[in-house]
Each structure stands twice: as C-alpha cells, then as structure tokens.
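Lab channel / #folding
Pinned by the channel admin:
"Please post every new chain as: sequence first, then the structure tokens as a reply. Keep commentary short and put observations after the output so the thread stays searchable."

First post following the new format, from NK:
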Amino acid sequence: MTAAGLIFSNIHDECLPELTRHRTMASVPFGGRYRLIDFPLSNMVNSNITKVGVITHYNYQSLLDHIGTGKDWDLARRSGGIKLLPPFISAFDSKGTPSLYHTRLEAMLGVMNFISRCDEDVIVLSDCDAICNIDLRDVIKYHERSGADITIVTKRVRSASAIAARQWIVNADDNGNIYEVAEYTKGLCDEAEVSTNIMVITRSYLQAILLDASAHGYTHFFNEVILKNIGRANYRAYRYHGYYANISSISGYFDCSMSLLDANVRNALFRQENRAVYTKVRNSAPTTYCDGAKVTNSVVADGCVIEGEVENCIIFRGVKVGRGTKIKNSILLQDTYVGQNVSLNCVITDKNAIIRDSRVLSGHESMPFFIGKGIMV
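Reply from TO:
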C-alpha cells in the first residue's frame, strides 16, 4: 500500500503565541538544533513516504528557510518530494480580506488539488505539535489489514495535566473499532486515550468526505465528519506505546524540552534503529568551553561559547554565555547573548536575545520567564 503525506504547519499556532509570533508552529525550535516539523517529516521519510505536502498559512518565511529544497530529508526529487502548499488567494480576493483557513477541514479543502493529484492509496496526516518517533509503516499495515477508512493513532495519557484542552479523547473496543470521540474539557477525566492527530486515511474516502463537507459547508473535521459517521464508516484506533508529548502552551514547551535531559527520553526520540530525526545541516564549529566553564546535565549545540556555569539547560547553536554567569533550568535559543555575572533560572529566550551584564531573571516551571526575539534586557 502506497502513501503520501500531508503536514499541517500552522494548526494550533494560537496555543504558543510567544514562539509563533514570527514563525509557524512547524518551525518552532526544539532540542538544541531541531524544528518541530522535523519529527513528522522524519517519521514520514523513515516510513518510505517520499511525497509530502506541507500546508502553510502565514509567517512561513522561517519554514521556507529551514526546509529549502528538502535535500536534508532526501526529498529534493523530480517526482514526489516535498511541496509547500500556501493558501490560494485570487486577485479578486486580495482586494478585500483574504479567506484563509481556520480549521483542519478547511485546510484540506484548500489543498484538494494536491490530494486529487496523488495516486497513492492512503494519505497520512500529521500535526507539528506532537513530538514522537513512530514507524508509520506499522500504522499503514494495520490500516490495510483492518480495511479501515480512517485510522487514528492514539496514546494512553495517564495524567490530566498532560492532556491539552483542545485534544480529542478516542474510545475504542479491544479490536480497535472507534465507537466514541469527545473533545476534552477540564475535569472530564484523569486518564484517557487521546488522539495524537496522526491519521491514515484512504485517499478515495478522504476525497469523498471533502466533497461532502464542501457541499454542506462543514468546517470541523472531528465534529462534523468523524462524529457524524461513527457507526457508518470503519474508523480504527492504532494504539501507540512509545514516547509522545504534545506542546500546547509555553509551559508545555518548557516541560517537553526539559524532558530531553532524561536519557530515556532522548533514546526514545533520537536513537531508534533506522529512524533518525533529520534536520537542516549547519556546518558550525564545535562549542568552546573556556577556563572556568562548568556544564552539568545539559544539551548544548555546536557553535557556542561557554565561559560561565550551565546546569539543566537546553542551549541552541551560537549561544554565548559570559564569565561569572550562572544559568539553571533554562532554554536559550539560537544566537542568544548572555553577558557576565548574569543569573538565569527558568528562562526561555527567543533567537538573538541579549541579556546584559549583572541581570537577575527568574521564572517558574509552570510559568517560565520569556524574552522575545531580538529583545535586549
């Protein structure tokens, strides 16, 4: 069974406004050298999906710069490869307010041409705010064996705090047949099987439901497609048991990033056999650790200069940490400059932030102190 991929780059941007003000959710930096889109894109490439469409909305300049021709994912191809799918706005629409999509269903209706031109058997859908390393070949095989119209990848979440307010709970029997879906509301439950928003859909069925949605003016995929057809169509749940994290807020981004300091999490994400996570390659110089530098339990990318102390931190490329500075439990994005004798705790800096000498900044794990892109403190 052949497959094509479709990635939503802007879905849920509003959940992380601090980091999506100048970029899409797909291009939010993560883990020292990656972007969030690297995970769904690598999942697809590692599963032999070589035709991938990326639906964009706005603020996608950094995404274009990151993906380029797709060569870092072996997707610079004459046939297939990666295709960015921006909104279609005619000359007449541009005179007024452009009609851009707001939901997953509207986004797919906007790329009907891409879907109709695919001749693959199934379309694999994925968001960018779900962090996991999954073998999609197993999901596609399960989809084929079950004869499903839609297969939703689900994950058992055992803490209410780990369930995002916008996530959907999926209830299925022992055979994987979905009999109920419901949008999560606070206090609904403490443990649930949630949708990871990774789905495999038979292409002909996807075209049929999109045509039906267009004819009836439907806008919401779960509310007006899944819910209306449960019991009439064959919807299956594929239960995923590997590492999974969902980023739905700045505190969620902080928690997910800090979890990378656990070797078990790093192994689950980055050391799966034959399932590497690919990203844009930058040939930077190694990090320089000067006399007096001290780094413990941290992820430090290349191209940095460390003169002070760093503990329990995620440090991106090109960061400079001055002498006498102490940084704990923080995330410093690319090219952040931290002066001398600075104290940071639970701080997130966006790219090119500057923290001058002798500053003392502290947040909390539940509410990290955020410094925007290019801001000087």
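NK: The mean pLDDT is 90.
TO: also worth noting, The first strand starts at residue 3 and ends at 8.
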